[in-house]
Amino acid sequence: MRPTGIWFSSFAAEARTLDTRRSRIWLAIGLAALVVLPLAGAPRLIGEMTNLYISLIAVCGLYVTVGMAGQINIAQSAFVGVGAFTTAKLSNLGVPVWIVIPAAALVTGGFSVLFALPAARVKGFYLALTTLAAQVMFPIVILALPMSWLGGLVGMPVMPPMLFGLNLGTPTGLYFLGLIFAALAVWTTYNLQASRIGRAFRAVHDNDSAAGVMGIPVTRIKIEAFFAGALYAGVAGAILAYMLQFVTVSSFTLFASVWYLGMLIVGGLHSPLGPILGVVFVTLAQDGLHNIGNAILQSGSGLGGGAVFAASSVVLGLCILAALIFEPRGLAHIWHQLMTAFRLWPFPQN
Amino acid sequence: MAATGKPILEARALGLKFGAVEALKDVSVRVEAGSVHALIGPNGAGKSSLLNCLSGFYHPWTGAVLFEGRDISATQPPERARLGIGRTFQGIQTYPSMTARENILSGFHIRMRGGVFAGLFRTPASVRQEEEMTARAEAIIDFLELEQDRHRVVGDMSYGLRKRVDLGRALALDPKVLVMDEPMAGMSPEEKGDLARFILDIRDHFGIPVVLVEHDMDVVMDISDRVTVLEFGHVIADGSPAEVTRDPRVIAAYLGGDAATEDAA
User: Fold this and answer.
1) Where are the domains of chain B?
2) What's the start-to-end Cα distance of chain A, in Å?
3) Which end of chain A is more exposed for a tag (fewer CB within 10 A), N or C?
4) What's the gap in Å between the CA of B204 and the closest CA on chain A?
C-alpha cells in the first residue's frame, strides 16, 4: 500500500519499480555504500560479499522459476554448474569475459529446456523428482565425458577475466563484477514481475487451467520459466567460476540447490524482495553460526569440527522450518507489513 | 432486445459419454448475436458438460461446435480464447496472488507481444504496450466499478468481488461471445443484481452475446432472451423465457409432476 499524498499522472510513472523520489534516494545511498565498501572492507568481507552476490543472482533465477511460475526446481546448483563449466571451457578458448557471461547464461538456459520438458507433463512432487534427476545426472555426465572436454574428475582451470587489459580476477574486480550482475539480476526480476510474460508465469502458478482458457499456452510458459530462471543460474555460475579459478563437479551439489531453495523460502515466494531478504538473512546467519562454531572449537570444549559443522546446519535448518511454520509468505511479507504499519501509524492496521 | 438471428456459437447434435453415462445426447443449441442465452436444467442435466464442450475443455464424441460458422470441435482452450470465446468459471478461478488489475491485464496476454527478454529488460516497446494495456484494463475496471480494489490482492477479496474480477479478465480477451458458468451461484441478492446489470450492459454496450448456465430462475427469466432447457442430456425445450415456462415438460422436469410428463408424451 502506498502512503497518502502519492499520486501519478501516467500509468508508466505508476508502473515504475522505484515510484517515489524517496525510494530512488534510498537506492542510490545503498548502492553508493556497496560501491565504496571494498575501499574500507577487509579482504574476507569482500570475498563474503562476492559470494552473497553470486547466491543472490542464482536465487533471483530460482524466484522466477519457483516463485513466479510455481515450477519446483531443486537443480539450480547444477544449472549454476553448467554456467561455470561453460565459462571454464570458453575462457580456455580465449573468449573475452563480456562474451563469456552472456554465453554462459544462454547455454544454461538451453540446457534447462531439456529438463523443463517433463514440466509440461508432471506437477508438484513429481516435477521436484524430475529436477532432482537433473541435479544427480550433472556430475555423472561431466565425469563420463572425455577428460579433454570438461576435465572429468580433475576439473578445469578458469582463465582470469580480462576486460580492456584489466584483470577482473582480483578480489576487488570480482566484487564489482558480482555487484553489477547482482544489481542487474534484481532489476530484471522486478521488470519481469510486472511484464506480460511475468504475469503469465504467475497466472500459471496460481491456476493453470484458468490460464489456458485465458489464452495462455501453459506448457510453453512453464518451459520459458525454466529457461528464464536458468539464465540467472548461468550468470551466477560464470562469476563463481572466475572466483574459484578452478571448477570441479564437487562444487555444484544437491546441498547447494537445497540452500538456494531455502533462501528463497525464507525470503518469500511472492515478491522480488524475497530473494534479496532471503539471501542476506541466510548468509548472515550462516556467517554468524560459522563464527560461533569457530569460537566453540577454539574454546577447547572438546567438540570436533564435524560436530560443529553439523550443529550449524541443524540450526539453519530449524530457521527455515520456523520460517515455514510462522510466516510461510517469508521475510518479504513481514517487511511489507512493517512498512504498511509504519505508514498508517498511529492508526492500527486493517 | 431483438436478436439478429445470426448464430455466433452453435452446438450441432453434440454427444458426449463418460463411461456408461450419456452426459449429452444429440444436443443442438444456437447462440445468436446480441442475445443473452441461458442454459438451465436440473442437476446432472448436462449443462456444464455442454459449456465445457463450447469452451474446449471437453471434446464431443459426436456432432460439432461451430463458431461463426466454422467447425472448432478439435481446438484446445487457448486457441478458442484467441478466436474470441471468453469464459468465466464456476466458483473462484481467479489468480489469488495477483491484484485485481494484474488479473485483468493477464487477460490481455493474447493481445500483447514480447517474450522473456522483453520482460527482463523492459524494452521501450514493452513499456509503451504496458501503458496502452493498462489504460484498457482501467476501462474495464471503470465498467465493473472496481476502482477501489484495483491494487488489492484478489486472494483477500470477497466472493462477489472475485467473481467480478473473473468477469473483467474474460472481458479483457475482447471476446465475440462470453460463456459464463453459474455466475450467480453463492452470491447475495445485491451482488446478483449488480451482476445481472453488468451482463445486460455487456450485451447492449459491448454487443457481446452471453451464454450462461444458471440456477436462479428469477434471474434467468429476467435477463435472458432465449432459454434452452436440458434434462438427462437432452434438450427438452428451447425458446423465449415466456414460452419455456409454459412448456409442460419443463414444469415436469422442475416440479417432478407425473401428470405433466404424460401430457407431453
Assistant:
1) 1-84+175-265, 96-173
2) 12
3) C
4) 23
Contact list, A206 vs chain B (CB under 8 Å): 94-98
Contact between A87 and A100 under an 8 Å Cβ cutoff? The reply is: yes
| B261 close contact with A: CB closer than 8 A | no
**Which residue, among A193, A213, A226, A333, would best test binding to B if mutated, counting the most B CBs under 10 Å from its CB?**
A213
pLDDT, average across residues A157-161: 93
Put simply, the chain B residues between 182 and 241 with a CB less than 8 A from any chain A CB are none
Whether residue A63 lies within 8 A of chain B, CB to CB, comes out as no
Residue A210 in contact with partner chain B when CB distance is under 8 A: yes
- Please judge whether A191 and B119 are an interchain contact, meaning their C-beta atoms are less than 8 angstroms apart: yes
Give DSSP secondary structure letters for B152-189.
SBGGGS-HHHHHHHHHHHHHHT--SEEEEESTTTT--H
Q: B1-84+175-265: what CATH class?
A: alpha beta
Q: What is the mean pLDDT of residues A200-228?
A: 94
Query: Each residue of A82-105: pLDDT tens digit?
Result: 999 999 999 999 999 999 999 999
Q: Is A21 on the interface with B (CB under 8 A)?
A: no
User: Using a CB-CB distance cutoff of 8 angstroms, which residues of chain B are in contact with residue A12?
Assistant: 127, 130-131
Predicted confidence (pLDDT) at residue B145 exceeds the cutoff of 90: yes
pLDDT in tens, B218-234: 899 999 999 999 999 99
Average pLDDT over residues B122-133: 94
Residues 6+ apart with CB under 8 A from A184: none
Q: Which residue has the higher pLDDT, A253 or A348?
A: A253
* Torsional sign, CA B70, B71, B75, B80: positive
β-bridge partners, A78: none
Q: Do B114 and A228 touch (CB under 8 A)?
A: no
pTM of the predicted protein model: 0.90
Kindly state the cell numbers that stand for A237: 555460475
